[in-house]
Amino acid sequence: MKFYRNLQPFKVISFDLDDTLYDNHDVIRTAVSRFVQFTQDLTQCPTFETEWLDWKERVAQENPLLSEDVTEWRKEALHQFLNAQGKSAVEIDRTLARSMNEFLHWRHQIDVPQDTLRVLNHLKTGYKLCAITNGNVDPLRIGLSQFDLILRGGEHGRAKPHEDLFQQTAHYFNVSPQEILHVGDNLTTDVQGAIQAGCQAVWINLSDKHLIDFPQATLLPTLEINNLTKLLLL
After folding, report:
1. What are the catalytic residues?
2. Are residues 15 and 34 in the same domain?
């Protein structure tokens, strides 16, 4: 555990989800692969993956705010692809529903580590807990029922590192931003976002590198840990 700033008293602990509370890399890779194969079979378009990615990039350029909601971004890109393919409104709605259900099913095939459950259950006895994510995982679908508040980028406000979700958390729990301790793995969305919003930040460093090795580290976290269980020592 390394301290970069003085840790102040806090009442709320907010958590990023993906790659903070569980390993997300294989999960998202599988979910995307299944989504692509499923939709390619539905549409009978052998070049679906390339064309859909082109539409996804186009949607992001035309509507950056929409792309902060990763679920709506995916749906809009698929909608525009299907429309360009000349599909009827009925076909578009049917394909959207089936493809998104396929994606979200695999997106939630997550094995949450027992250490994560133990840490959250222990912390919940002394603090209010909140999930702040830029992703589209529903914590309840993966067995995480410890959160008093769940906020998703795009759906509930500008995605991290914008201040929106941190400020909403402070307002919801009637605390000052400084009384929120945010825990996350990303030095930009989590650490920079939290510090700029006036919160405190725990960087969970799961690499073998030092903070100085990350050029995106523009703001120091309050402290650094290499394992979620270290939160129990605070």
Report:
1. 16
2. no
pLDDT averaged per 10 residues, the chain (length 234): 97 98 96 96 93 94 94 96 94 96 97 97 98 97 98 95 98 98 97 98 94 89 97 96
Report DSSP letters for 51-89, one per residue.
Answer: HHHHHHHHHHHH-TTGGGSHHHHHHHHHHHHHHHTT--H
Q: Which two tokens stand for residue 26?
A: 């294989």
User: What is the C-alpha separation between 199 and 58, in angstroms, rounded?
Assistant: 34
End-to-end CA distance of the chain: 10
51 and 87 assigned to the same domain:
yes
- Residue 18 neighbours by CB distance under 10 Å: 20
| Total tally of structural domains belonging to the chain | 2
Between CA 42 and CA 78 the distance in angstroms is 12
Q: What is the pLDDT of residue 208?
A: 87
Single pTM value for the model: 0.94
Q: Tokens 């990615």 identify what position?
A: 53
Residue 37's pLDDT is 96
CB distance 60 to 67 below 8 Å:
yes
16 & 125 share domain: yes
